[in-house]
Amino acid sequence: MMSAVSVGAPSNRRRRLITSEDVAMRRLAHSLSLSLIAEGISDDLIDTVEEILGDRPSTVADGGGRRLDGVLVRLGLPAPRRRPPAVEPLSAADTARITHRFRRATHQLIQVAPYRVTTFPTEELCHLLALRNEHPAPDEALSYLRRYALAIVTLLNLMGDDN
């Protein structure tokens, strides 16, 4: 069933006049969003990401064996496979400091990222939120923080670099 409405038909909704206070609030909201966008990413976050993703020195002894490897190769025998070097675990204080820094960055990225990308990064933001809410065991802290750092880097790459 269709009905026609004449141009002169009164509306049930009353139109509210836009006041100068409404205009001021809209300007303030716009200015705050521009300020948030311009804020960018601090060098502290970049340094923390590099700290986690960089090579961590190991205090575990290598065990030598390089001289023996050379002898085996000269004799035409294959060198034995080596395990990757053991990595020094993070201290509890370092883990707490870096986790706190990444969680603060996540809060900021969630607010800024939608304005700095062409397509809304739904999957990346969901991944970042999941990592923010995760609480790993102490022996899994380094791998957790590396995954978190990679998620932050992925989102930063989508946002581009203004620096």
Helix proportion: 55-70%
Q: Using DSSP, what is the number of strands?
A: 0
Order of helices and strands: HHHHHH
How many angstroms separate the termini?
60 Å
How confident overall, as mean pLDDT? 77
**Which structural class best describes the helix and strand composition?**
mainly alpha
Please mark out the parts with pLDDT under 50 across 5 or more consecutive residues, or reply none: none
Oligomer: single chain
- Shape summary: elongated
Whole-angstrom Rg: 28 Å
Strand content: under 5%
Largest sheet geometry: none
> Helical region count?
6
Characterize the structure shown:
- This protein is mainly α.
- The chain contains six helices and no strands.
- Helix 2 packs across helix 6, helix 4 runs antiparallel to helix 5 and helix 5 packs antiparallel against helix 6.
- The mean pLDDT is 77.
Label this structure with key terms.
single chain, 163 residues, mainly alpha
Nutshell version of this structure?
With 163 residues, the protein is mostly helical. The protein has six helices and no strands.
Set down the secondary structure blueprint.
Blueprint: H1 20-39, H2 43-53, H3 66-74, H4 92-116, H5 122-133, H6 141-159
